[in-house]
Amino acid sequence: MNQLFPIKFEIQATDGEARAGVLTTRHGVIETPVFMPVGTAGTVKGLRFEALESEDLDAKIILGNTYHLWLRPGIDVIKSAGGLHRFTSWDRAFLTDSGGFQVWSLGALRKISEEGTEFRSHVDGSLRFLSPEVSMEVQAALGSDIVMVFDECAPGEASHEETERSMNLTARWAKRSRIAFDQLQTERADTGRRESEGLSGAQALFGIVQGAGHRDLRRVSLEQTVDIGFDGYAIGGLSVGEEKSVMFDVIEEIVPKMPKHAPRYLMGVGTPEDLIEAVARGVDMFDCVLPTRNGRTGQAFTSRGKLNIKNAQWTNDSRPLDESCRCSVCRRHSRAYLRHLYTAGEMLASILLTHHNLAFFLDTMRGVRQSIRSGDFPTFRREFTGRLGANGE
Amino acid sequence: MNQLFPIKFEIQATDGEARAGVLTTRHGVIETPVFMPVGTAGTVKGLRFEALESEDLDAKIILGNTYHLWLRPGIDVIKSAGGLHRFTSWDRAFLTDSGGFQVWSLGALRKISEEGTEFRSHVDGSLRFLSPEVSMEVQAALGSDIVMVFDECAPGEASHEETERSMNLTARWAKRSRIAFDQLQTERADTGRRESEGLSGAQALFGIVQGAGHRDLRRVSLEQTVDIGFDGYAIGGLSVGEEKSVMFDVIEEIVPKMPKHAPRYLMGVGTPEDLIEAVARGVDMFDCVLPTRNGRTGQAFTSRGKLNIKNAQWTNDSRPLDESCRCSVCRRHSRAYLRHLYTAGEMLASILLTHHNLAFFLDTMRGVRQSIRSGDFPTFRREFTGRLGANGE
Predict the structure, then answer these.
(1) Which residues of A touch B48 (CB under 8 A)?
(2) What does the pLDDT look like over A288-309, one tens digit per residue?
(3) ipTM above 0.90, yes or no
């Protein structure tokens, strides 16, 4: 059998349901479970790529938003640069979402039909139309290593009927995404093509399981998605306002039924404890804006829980954000200085808090992987979770 | 003679009026002519200290603003941290201004008397009072390596009479600054004390020559300042709205009369061509917000002149900001990408443009120093200035 696949995924150790593996992409090898920093518009806000590549963070894959990049700078610009990797100078892996979630988030500003979604651009107010075919075309131009199907996300509180309708639309869109994607790969429309590590050089395509909080619909959606067949499988539509127990109910229902030998990606999740709990249930990949967005609003994630740098209690505190953290921010700067920067509205506050937060998330995932490989994941999970309450915030 | 001085300054080469020297401070050795990046509130906006220390920039001294740091985070916080170096983690040299210029910039919001200046804080609206004695006390708490006397700055268009009154007030304030400073050094109120390189460990104090565009008053002010006696001499009150010819008239009148063996500091100046023209007239030190402030508003300084990254002409331009620049931004990022970041309002635009601009200013000064040492400064000056027009902006 000499068929080449766009990615290779190998599970190398398990501890209970938790899996430690290696995902090989045309832009590098990624150890899983992995957290993907969010780089919405072709930049992880506030960080230079050198920081993402540094030993502190060493992010192997970041997420780009198709919706944002499509509207600005637009596909012509990125194509002209030779794809998103070259445009941004990031030579490691990119996963791009499909734009479905962003368009869905526009709420009243969008109109959904069988064909796709019509909406007004938040950039210039122009009327735009996004569909499975357009999303695949945009993602091929971006040349991301992992492409997501164009889906519709039902609200967390959606009724069974509403969710079912939405889920079936997602299934039809997934099929159309698959067809358009395959066609684009055949046409070599993908700007990121690069044969490496015995891969096909093509992009990988992930399907998305929807169904809101309805476990029966989630099962149907999983079947529909697996029937089409993808390189990896994501769980979408969680962490969108539902109760945390609903999220874990869905994960527990669905993850054990997902294909064992493909990567499992929980979209848009979550806090450090969410990541660890989802890993314990067999999830391999995550992305979330929390470390970056909250960094910009003054919230640090630490091994002892969250810390709000705005608090007056840090005014003269010479300790680092996290005494257990060895990142360049914690090695160098005090809470007092960071609080001053934040209070003075200095950009450096966002830069340093974002850096630390990502260091914490990525280091946590390193710990998760090591503990799965050494069979100590339950201990890691218990101790990590126990420490988190320590700050009492 | 075993008296130790707070700084040592040695001129090692001259080329015409231009001087290349070494300024030794308790926080490191600084080659002159030197450009000091502005770090208003204890941060050079948008840059991590690691970047300032990196080979790209290798800034040896930065400027802190007494006014800003006094109002926020306040002196108690900085004293509690052990001074500005420790508070910020910057272990190289700091020069602090006196607050006089910032208070003067408040315009109608301040009231000047013989005793000092009363004004309302821009942070919390509280009524504050700044005087030579307060400024010296604040700068001792900051522990900067070079302290500036508290002066009054006459407007560029001030009449002879008005300028003379202001200049005489500055002279009286300089005397009071000297007395208060000496007393604080005796009391070891200075948080930055550190004996090194055969220095006294104390702060250095620079006097400031005022007199607006009136050459006769500038001469008087210089005499008044030298009579008091300082470790270095600055020219203040330029680049505040006057014609550029007025600035160079004053420089040409005053610099040759300044003490030869002390550093000469031209405050708040200027563009790259201003720096080179002032070096050619014998100036050793500069500070200016241009590379940092303009970086945040999308303007790059390059060897071929200014470049406005907002311009649509860069939309698909794969070239770096400056093809002659070897900084990490120019080695990695295209104008197209930088324009996208700026247009999308991404923080990374400010970070990267500020980094490049400072790299360009600091690299220009390296070139200046080398050319003075090799006797090629006139050639350097001519070629540098010739290239600057190339972008035609």
Answers:
(1) 348, 351-352
(2) 999 999 999 999 999 999 999 9
(3) yes
